[in-house]
Design brief:
The chain has one helix at 233-236; strands spanning 4-8, 16-23, 33-42, 47-55, 63-64, 75-83, 88-95, 101-108, 115-116, 127-133, 140-145, 151-156, 175-178, 182-188, 194-200, 206-213, 221-222, 227-230, 239-240, 243-244, 258-262, 266-275, 278-286, 294-297, 309-315, 320-325, 328-334, 341-348, 367-370. With 376 residues, it is an all-beta fold. The protein has a single domain, classed as Neuraminidase, CATH 2.120.10. The protein is globular, with a radius of gyration of 19 Å. The model is unreliable at 317-376 (pLDDT under 50).
Length: 376
């Protein structure tokens, strides 16, 4: 079936980036999907907010949501979406006119209108938040990086009325879990276990580390690292305004790992590894909650060296995986038992222009193309 254009704007000032999407896991709610992205209001002056769209029918039709309330802030960025048993939560960072970024959260029953939850953490310098929901117990978990590059954690046990940290009782939100952290991600297993991964910079190479909670966020223990000796993009590529860029490109990229669960205890992790002048996606699979890992390249095809693979995202509930490629956007599917990963579906062959932030069929303005298709 044809691609479905979710958003479009003829004004390049309103370009989109930092896309996120989440499907309601409740089978009694139909096929609710919510998408979010950073939307520029004036790209030349770097003025932006978060905008969302929602689909009640599995992605066939899409509607623009009401504006996300700023709640006294001036800017919103870094959106992440997560469903629990009642609502979809939108998590991001917000800045005021005086500067400084804080973690904020909103919730909605369907993605049409958003209400702010209680405050999460009042400290400045927050970046790269990520959220995951537990459909069984209704909790929502958030991780982010603070101004000192430390890994922080918060959770809500009452649908956003309050946010607390790790530990039993009402501990302060923003529990320190680790130092020297980049791009954290969180996922919830079918058994309720919490898996948190992040990039830990090293002297000559980087490492993807993991912490696990088996008691709903009360305590965390360090698991075996899914990957060591990782060459992230910042180690080898030239930088523009402090961010890596691929050869011949102008748009900035960063290395961001991804994590998801499969079955009751399985965990899958993916990341991009830069070697011999190209970026390729690697994966690690653990059937027993991070106690052992099987790793390797996602694909062994002989892609042209001008193709750069980056920004992997894995979703196993729907048995789909995807990663972005500098010259094409593809959707990959996982085999049901996650013993291997294979390409099953091409989403888009439209070239992506690395000089702007669009993820759509249009080279100007904004766009998020979505294809909903059966496995073939």
């Amino acid at each position: 079936m044809a691609n479905i254009q979710v958003t479009h704007d003829t004004d390049p000032n309103n370009a989109r980036s930092e896309s996120s999407i989440a499907i309601n896991p409740n089978p009694n709610k139909g096929l609710q999907i919510v998408a979010a992205s950073k939307k520029f209001r004036d790209i030349h002056n770097y003025d932006f907010t978060i905008a969302t769209e929602y689909s009640p029918d599995g992605g066939f039709t899409w509607f623009s949501s009401d504006e996300v309330p700023l709640m006294g802030f001036t800017s919103l960025a870094d959106p992440s979406l997560a469903w629990n048993d009642q609502n979809v939560f939108l998590v991001g960072v917000a800045a005021s006119a005086q500067g400084g970024w804080r973690v904020v959260a909103y919730k909605s029953t369907d993605g049409k209108a958003w209400t702010a939850t209680s405050p999460i953490d009042s400290s400045d310098g927050a970046d790269q938040p990520w959220a995951a929901g537990d459909f069984i117990n209704g909790r929502v978990y958030i991780v982010w990086v603070d101004g000192s590059s430390d890994l922080r954690f918060a959770q809500t046990k009452n649908n956003g009325l309050t946010w607390v940290g790790a530990g039993a009782g009402d501990t302060p939100a923003g529990t320190l879990l680790a130092n020297a952290c980049l791009a954290p991600k969180v996922a919830v297993g079918g058994n309720g276990h919490i898996y948190i991964i992040w990039i830990s910079p090293g002297a000559t190479s980087d490492e993807i580390k993991m912490k696990v909670s088996t008691d709903g966020g009360d305590t965390f223990h360090t698991a075996i690292s899914p990957a060591t000796d990782v060459d992230t993009l910042g180690r080898s590529l030239p930088e523009v305004h402090g961010f890596p860029v691929f050869p011949g490109g102008k748009f900035r990229f960063v290395s961001t790992p991804t994590v998801c669960r499969f079955g009751q205890t399985g965990v899958a992790v993916a990341w991009n590894h830069f070697q011999k002048g190209v970026s390729r996606i690697y994966y690690a699979l653990s059937p027993h909650g991070g106690t052992t890992w099987t790793t390797g390249p996602l694909l062994t095809d002989a892609f042209p060296v001008t193709f750069q693979h980056f920004h992997p995202q894995i979703v196993t509930d729907r048995k789909f995986c995807n990663w972005r490629r500098l010259q094409a956007l593809q959707l990959l599917a996982c085999t049901p038992r996650m013993q291997r990963l294979q390409v099953v579906l091409l989403v888009s062959r439209i070239a992506l222009d690395p000089s702007n932030g669009n993820l759509g069929a249009q080279s100007n303005g904004d766009g998020i193309p979505v294809r909903r298709a059966a496995q073939r």
